[in-house]
Amino acid sequence: MGQTKLLKLPRGVTIRKHRQGETINITFTYKGVKCREPLSNLEVTPKNIKYA
Question: Where is the Min27-like integrase DNA-binding domain (predicted)?
Fold first, then answer.
């Protein structure tokens, strides 16, 4: 936590930093509606970013 290296993130994947730690967020369009979903149960690691 707090030592995230600069990673090239795929399109639609962002990392949100907050007091409790970091969260991976995915952004996508579904039926013309922009959706943003947090993947709060995943740690921010290169493997999980690839999964997202």
Answer: 10-52
